[in-house]
Amino acid sequence: MRVPVEWLRELAHVESHVRGKDVSETLVRLGLEDEGVHGGGVGGPLVVGRVLTLDPEPQKNGRTINWCTVDVGQANGTGEPQGIVCGAHNFGVGDLVVVVLPGGTLPTPDGSFQVTARRTYGHVSAGMICSERELGLGDDHAGIIVLERRLADEPGVLAALVPGEDAIALLGLDREVVEVTVTPDRGYCFSMRGIAREYALATGAPFDDPADIPVAAPNDGGYAVRLADEAPIRGRAGCDRFVARVVRGVDASSPSPSWMRRRLTDVGMRPISLAVDVTNYVMMLLGQPLHAYDLDTLSGEIVVRRARAGERLTTLDDVERHLDREDLLITDGGDVVLGLAGVMGGASSEVSPTTSNVLVEAAHFDPVTVARTSRRHRLVSEASKRFERGVDPAVADRAAQLACDLLVRYGGGTVDEGVTVVGEVGTRDAIAFDVGLPTAYVGLEYPRAEVVATLRAVGCEVVDRDGEVVDVRPPTWRPDLVDGPDLVEEVARVRGYGEIPSVLPRAVGGRGLTHGQRVRRLVAQTLAQHGLVEVLSYPFVGDELFDRLGYAVDDPRRHTVRLANPLQDEAPLMRTSVLDTLLDILRRNVARGARDLALYEIGLVTVGRPDQPPVPIPGVEGRPADDVLASILDGVPVQPRHLALAAAGDAVPTGPWGDARRVEASDAVAWAVELGRALGLELLVRNHSRAPFHPGRCAVITLADGRVVGHAGELHPKVVGALGLPARTVAAELDVDVLVEATGTPVQARPLSTYPVAHTDLAVVVDDGVPAADVAAALGGGAGPQLESLTLFDLYRGDQVGEGRKSLAYRLTFRAEDRTLTTDEVSALRDSAMRAAAEAVGAVQRA
Amino acid sequence: MSGPNTSYDPVEVAALDPQAVDDAVSAALAAASSAGTLDELRAARSAHQGDRSALALANREIGALPPSAKAEAGKRVGQARGRVAAAFAARHAELEAERDERILTEEAVDLTVVPPRRVGARHPISLVTERVEDIFVGLGWEIAEGPELESEWLNFDALNLGPDHPARQMQDTFFVEPADSSGLVLRTHTSPVQVRTMLDREPPIYVLCPGKVFRTDELDATHTPVFHQFEGLVVDEGITMAHLKGILDVFVARLFGAGTATRLRPSYFPFTEPSAEIDCQCWICSGTDASCRTCRGTGWIEVGGSGMVNRRVLTASGIDPDRYTGFAFGLGIERSLMLRHGVADMHDIVEGDVRFSTQFGMEI
C-alpha cells in the first residue's frame, strides 16, 4: 500500500514538520512493514524560469549545446538573467521551464547531489534547466520540462506563474509517498481510511472518518438486484450485501480533476477516465472496491450466483476465462455474465467514452470465495486483494454514495432516487474480555483505563460494567478481532512492543540431548575425523534414477512418494536412499575440479508404500478424536535417518612419502566398521550382492544379531557409467536409526587380566571363495574365551598353495583371567582353533 | 727410590723402568687424543691398553720383581694404567657425543613437507544447528524432532492455517500426489513438531525444534527451496511476551555476541496472537554505520517471527488454553549462517561443494 503523505495529512492531522520517514516509522511501530519512502529528494532553490535567449553552439565533439539566459525573477538574489548551458533542444525562447539554482539538490539513485555553478563549454553555467528524470518525476530524459505543455490542462495555474516562484510544490515534488506492506489480518489498511486510523491511533491525533458522510436511505425504486448463491462455501454466502446506485447523464469525456489524478498516480494507479478514476479513488480512500457498469448495456436484474458448468467470461484484461462452479458471478438477468464477483469485471459491460448512464456496484463478498477464484484464475486485482483480507461491510453504501457524488460533481448528471441495498450488515457478537488479560499475556502492566481507551480508539464498542470482564464489540472493519489475545495485541501494539520487558523464563531442567541425538552427532563427528566431508543435498530424484542404479523391477526402494508440484519436473520423487542424491554432489565436485573426494550426508529417506492411505485433514476446530489423530500420525510415511558416504580418487596421493593408494571398496567397509567401534558396536561384515554395488565388491554390514545396518562397497561399473562418476567410486549407505536402537544400554565392563599375553601365529589355507570373515569367525569360536585378539597379517595366493586356494595368516593373542598360560596350553588352544576352521570352512593348516 | 735387587733381570728391568713407563703413558695419551673416530680410538686402545701393550707387559713383570720392589713398581704401573684408562674413557665419551650429535644432525628432516592426510569437515549448517541446540540445552530445554514429510493437518490446520490460507497454495508448498487427497506435504516449517510435542506430553514444555523445511522457492542468492530453521516453544503457566523477549535476548547474545539484543515489532502469523517480528541489533556496526552492509544502515536485522501461541493451536494440541500460555518463535539457520559468517551467496551453502564445508572445519 502506497500512502501519499499529503493525503494522510488531510485525514489524520499529520503535523507539517513530519516527514515521510517519520510516518513510516510510526506505521511500522504499529505492525505495518516498511517498504521505503518515495519522493522528497529535491531541495530548492528550484524555481520557474522563462527562457530569454537561446544560442546554439556547435562543439568539437559533434554536439550542439545551447547557451541560454533565463529569467528567474529575484530567486537568484540579483534579478539578473541566469546564464545556463543546456544540452536539450525541445524548448525555445519564451518557454516557461524549471530551473535548479546553485545550492539546490537533486535526487540520485544513492542519495542526492548538490548543484553548483560550474565552468563548461566555455561558459559558467549557473544551475540547470531540469528534465523529468532529473527531478525523479518520470523516465523522460530526452527533453526538459516545458511548463506550458505540462500544465496544459490547468490554464489557470499556468497563467498565474511568475518567473522565480518556487516550483517544488508546483510539480508536486514535496509529496512523499510512504510504502508499507499490509499483513493479511489488516485488510482495513488497504485504504487511506484505515491507514489514517492507524496513524491517529499512534499519535493520538484526531481522526476524521472519511466514511462519515450523509447517505441516501435505501428504497424499493433502485435497480433490481437478487442474491442467488445456491452453493455457499463452508456455509458462508458469496455475497451478503449489494448496493447499487445509478447516475444518469454523466459526461464520460469529462476529465478527472487533477488532484484526483495526482493522488491516484501517487498510490500507483493509472488515471483512465472519470468513471474509472472515481471508483478507484473511492476504493483507495474507503477500501471498498467498486464497479461501474454502462447502464445501457444491462437489460435485466442483476443476479449474483455461482457459475454453471461450461460458462466463460472475457475479463477486462482481455483473457477468456473458463469458469468454475465455485466462481461467484455478477450476471445480467441471470444469464449474461458481467464479471467475476470481487475479482474483475467483464469487457461487455465496461464503461466507455460514450457512456452516459452509470450503475455503481458496491458489494461485500466472502473472502474465501474471492480468494479461491483469484487463485484459480491466477488473477490478482486491487479488488480481490481487499476482499480476500476482508472489507468493511458497513462502508458499501457510503462508498457508493461518495462515488455518485463525485461523478455528478465532475461529470454532471443526476443521481437516481432509487437506492438498492440488498442484505444487512450483520451484528457481531461481543467478546467477553478480561481487562487483566493484556497484563497477564504480555508481562507489562496495562491499567484498566488504558485497556478500555485503546480498544475504543481502535473502534471497538466497550461496555464497561466495572467488573473484571468487559464486553467488547469489534468494529465492522476488524474481522480479525475474534478473541481475547486479538484484543491483547491491540493494547500491546498501541503502547508499543518496545516497552515489553525482557525476562528469562526458568525451564524445568531438561534431560539434555537424547541418545539418538548424541549418536547422530558422534556419527557425523567420527566420519569427519576419518577425513570425510559432510555435505547436504536436496532429497528429490527422478523416475529413471532407479534404473540407472540398477535396481530390480521389484526393488522396494522403488516405492517412492511423489510430489504433485516438484521443483523440477524431472525430479518429482522423494529419495529412498541418501546415496540417490549424494552421488550427484560427488559428480558436481568432480566437475569443479576435485579429484580425491570422500563425502557423507546424514538425512532422512522416505519409505513409500503402495497402499498409502489418504491422511485425514480434520480442520482447525480442535483436537481431533483419538482415532482420527492416530490415522494422521500413522499415515505419515516412515522416514528413517540414513547415512551415505561416497569416495573416489586416491586415499593417499603420490608424494615424497611414497606411492599413491587409491580409495577402494574396503575403505567404505572400514569406515562403516570404525563407526560401529566408535559406538561400542562390533559390526559384522559379509560379502553380498546388491544394487547399486559391484556384485563382487559389496558387503552387507549387520549387527551381531543379524539386523542389517547397511551396505558398503564399490559401485557397479554400469552405475558409475550411467551417473557419470569417477571410475571405481566406492560408497556405503547405513541406517543410523538401527545404530541408535542397537546402542544406548550401558556397556558392562569386563575385568582386565594383568597376566601376560601369549602370541601364536597360524596360517590356514582355504578355497579362494571362502570369506576371511568366516575363517576368522571359525578360528575365534575354536580358540575360546581366552583369545584376546585375532589379527590377519598376511594373505597369499600362488603356487605354494595351489590354484583356487588362498592362505590366510593370523596372529592369535591369548590371555587368561587367572594365570599365565603355558606354551602347551597355547598350542592346544591354537589346535582347537585350527580344528574349528577345518570343520567350518575346510581350512588346512599351512605347512 | 731403588734398593738392592737380588734377582735383577735386565729385560724386565727395562719394561719397568720409570722412564719407559712414562713414555708408554705419554704415547698412550697421545694416541687417545689423536684418535678422530671411535674406530681409531678402539685401535689405539687395543695398542696401548691391550694385552700386548707396554703397560700390560710392565704389569706382568711386576710379579718377577723381588718383594721389596713389587710395591713401588706396582704402584707406578697401576697409576700409569689408570691415567691411560681415564684418558681413553674420556676420549671415548667425547667421540660418542660427537657421533650422537652428528647422527641427530644427519637425521634432520624437512617437516615443512606435510603429507596431505585427508581432513574431513562438518557442514556449517549442521554446526550452527548444533551450536543453537547447545545454547538451548544449556538453558534446560530439550530438542524435539519430527518427520520432514508431514501430514497436512499438522503442518497447517493444527496451526490455525485453514484450508484457504494463502500459504497453503501450490506456489508455496510441496504437496504429495494426489495433491487434493493425499493429506501430505513437505513441512513448510518445523511447527508441526511443536504440535507433535504438545500432543505427546503435558506442560511444562520447553523445546527447540530444529530441522529441514521446504518451500517452493527457486534457488537464488538468498533463497533455497530446502532450508533449515529452528523453532522454540514454551508452554507453561504464566508465560508472557516478556519471557519471549527474555529468551530471544539471551539467545542472540550467545550466538551473535554479548550486548546484542532484540526488538519486537507487531506482525501477523496465524499460529500466534499477539505476533511479533524479531529484529536483532546489528552486531557488526551496532547501528553506527549508515553504510553497513549487514543491516543496511538501519542498525537492525530482521531474523525471524514469534508470538504467543494462538489459543486455537493450544486447543488443537489438547492443551487447556485457560490454564497455560506459551510462546513460540522461528529463525532460519541459513540466514544465521550467512549473517554470522558473511556468506554472500546461498548457492555455496546448498550445492555441496567440499570447499565450502572444509573452510569451517569441525567447530563454528
Please describe what this structure looks like.
The complex is a heterodimer of chains A (847) and B (364). In chain A, helix 21 crosses helix 22. By secondary structure, chain A is of the alpha+beta class. Chain A contains 22 helices and 42 strands. By secondary structure, chain B is an alpha+beta fold. Chain B contains 13 helices and nine strands. In chain B, helix 2 packs antiparallel against helix 3 and helix 3 packs antiparallel against helix 5. Chain B is rod-shaped, with a radius of gyration of 45 Å. The chains are: A alpha+beta (847), B alpha+beta (364). Chains A and B meet through helix 2, helix 8, helix 11, helix 13 and helix 14 of A and helix 6, strand 1, strand 2, helix 7 and strand 5 of B.
State the end-to-end CA separation of chain B.
Answer: 90 Å
How would a textbook summarize the main sheet of chain B?
7 strands, mixed
C-alpha termini separation of chain A = 93 Å
> How many E strands of chain B?
9
CATH class annotation of the largest domain in chain A: Alpha Beta
What is the total tally of β strands of chain A? Answer: 42
In CATH, what is the homologous superfamily of the largest domain in chain B?
Bira Bifunctional Protein, Domain 2
Secondary-structure map:
The complex is a heterodimer of chains A (847) and B (364).
Chain A (H helix, E strand, L loop, with lengths): L1 E3 H8 L7 H11 L2 E6 L7 E13 L5 E8 L10 E5 L9 E5 L4 E4 L2 E4 L3 E3 L2 E3 L2 E2 L17 H4 L4 H5 L17 E5 L10 H12 L21 E3 L11 E10 L9 H9 L7 H13 L4 E4 L7 E5 L5 E3 L5 E3 L5 E5 L3 E5 L3 E2 L12 E8 L1 H10 L5 H8 L6 H16 L2 E2 L4 E3 L8 E4 L2 H6 L5 H11 L2 E3 L5 E5 L10 H12 L19 H15 L3 E2 L5 E2 L3 H4 L24 E2 L4 H13 L5 E8 L21 H10 L5 E8 L1 E3 L8 E2 L2 H14 L5 E5 L4 E10 L5 E8 L1 H7 L6 E6 H7 L15 E10 L4 H12 L3 E10 L8 E10 L8 H19 L2 E2 L2
Parallel strand pairs in A: 13-16, 28-31
Antiparallel strand pairs in A: 1-12, 2-12, 3-4, 3-6, 4-5, 6-11, 7-8, 9-10, 14-22, 14-23, 14-24, 15-22, 16-19, 17-18, 19-20, 20-21, 25-27, 26-27, 29-30, 31-32, 32-38, 33-34, 35-36, 36-37, 37-38, 39-41, 39-42, 40-41
Chain B lengths: L9 H7 L1 H17 L3 H12 L4 H9 L4 H41 L16 H15 L3 E2 L5 E3 H4 L28 E3 L4 H10 L4 E10 L11 E11 L4 H16 L5 E8 L2 E10 L18 E10 L1 H6 L8 E8 H9 L4 H5 L3 H5 L6
Parallel strand pairs in B: 1-4
Antiparallel strand pairs in B: 2-3, 4-5, 5-9, 6-7, 7-8, 8-9
